[in-house]
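REQUEST FORM: STRUCTURE PREDICTION
Request ID: SP-0412
Submitted by: Lab K.M.
Chain count: 1
Length (residues): 185
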Amino acid sequence: MPRPAWGLPLPLTSERLRLREHRAGDLDDLVVFHGDEEVTRYTPWPTRDRARTHDALTRRIGQRQAAAAGEAVVLAVEEIDSGTVIGEALLLREADDEAVLGYAIRRDRWGRGLATEAASTLVDAGFQELGLRRASAVVVPANVASIEVLRKLGFTPVSETVDRATFELTAERWRVHRARHPAAG
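STATUS: Completed
RESULT:
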C-alpha cells in the first residue's frame, strides 16, 4: 500500500537558512538566479527571463507535498538575516522511501557553505520526517562545487558517465555521518 503524500513541517530552519514554501513575493529574488547562466548551467531548467521565472514560481507555489513518484517537494531557501530567497531545494519522490535531492543557490552567495547547509537541512528532514531509506543526487561531473557539497554530506558516488554522476546516501550512512560530523545535520 502506498504511503501518504509527503509533507514536511515547514519551515525547516538551520543556523542561517529557512526552507519554506514559495510565495508570490519571491519573484524578484528568483529572477536573480533563474536568470543567471552561471547558476543554471548545471540545473535541469534553462536560464529564464522574468516572465518564465514567474511561470516557474506559479508552479512552485503549493509544491510542499509529493503524493506520488515523480512529484517533488520544492522549497524556497531564504536567508534568515536578510529575508532574501537565495536559492531553492527539492526532494523528488522516486518511491515511498526514496528521493532525489536537488538545490541551487544564487551566485553572490557561493562559497559560504549555504548550499551544504540547505541540502543538509532538507536531507535530514527527509530521513527524519519522511522516513526515507535512501536519497540520491545527479550532477554533471564538471560541477565540482556540487560534488563537494554531496561529499560533505556523506553521499558516495554510485555511477558516472560523461554527462552525469549519481551519488547516494542511505539513512544508516546519514545517521553515522551526523554522529561524526554534527555540523552536517
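NOTES: The longest strand covers residues 85-95.
Reviewed by: T.R.
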